């Protein structure tokens, strides 16, 4: 069966979905970007256009990008070759979405989930066999337009033609370096990355309890963790505190009992407080840097 990709539908236009949509449209492909309501759709469009590298590219993206709500535009999915899910990192939400789109999908289209680490088999379990054959994980990294790495994770039932087609498209058209991973919790990069990020956060928290400010704590931890100067707090602000907490939660749910990594799957209390107040990082206009740095300033 031909699995050629000439158009892309992205569902969820947040940090990652907007990056994937921008990359595909900038490369000259028609993109449909669906969100849950009109306000979220408007913001997703703005976010996608903001990722253009210059005015010409912004015009090109504007021309190729169609946005809409899931309720109003779901049937249009049938016109698209690759359907890429980039909604919240929640197993039930992802499963509900795939059940919903399956009837509208055309034969031969390919599907992917941009999950950070939920096993693919948990997402597809009990859903139509056709979905199991047509789906892989495409785990892009943030920011999508900058980060070259892409993990592609097939499931047990995935048609090899789907893996080949998406690897080709993401490699040749989007310029990614594709690594194929096994369907294990958090795949390769996040299985390692989450531990050092979350354990690093626990260390950073200890520094801050000793009165060390956020920038100094980041400077102390950046080099040993192999991070750029924006550091660990800066990275988590970019990822989103909510996303990081959900990734930790899913990791905890999937690790075997007694695994040493379980201790590092939870946010320390101060971070949990930011989360509870909706201070999620760059996307909400404030996370560690805006909020905690402000608090550092008041102490000194
Ligand atoms: P985000 O919170 O920035 O965006 C999620 C978007 O999906 C929001 O705009 C929201 O309105 C929309 N949405 C949520 N539930 C929906 C539903 N049921 N139907 C339609 N739209 C819905 O999240 P982000 O960071 O873009 O993450 C998306 C996925 O990518 C998650 O699975 C996450 O784990 C994964 N990921 C995130 C990375 C990061 O650094 N933020 C890196 C790699 C993967």
TrEMBL record:
Record EC number: 1.1.1.35
Domain 3-hydroxyacyl-CoA dehydrogenase C-terminal, residue spans: 187-290
Domain 3-hydroxyacyl-CoA dehydrogenase NAD binding: 7-184
Keyword list, A-Z: Oxidoreductase
Domain of life assignment: Bacteria
MF-aspect GO terms: (3S)-3-hydroxyacyl-CoA dehydrogenase (NAD+) activity
Stated name of the protein: 3-hydroxyacyl-CoA dehydrogenase family protein
Lineage: Bacteria, Pseudomonadati, Pseudomonadota, Alphaproteobacteria, Rhodospirillales
First and last residues shown, out of full length: 1 to 300 of 437
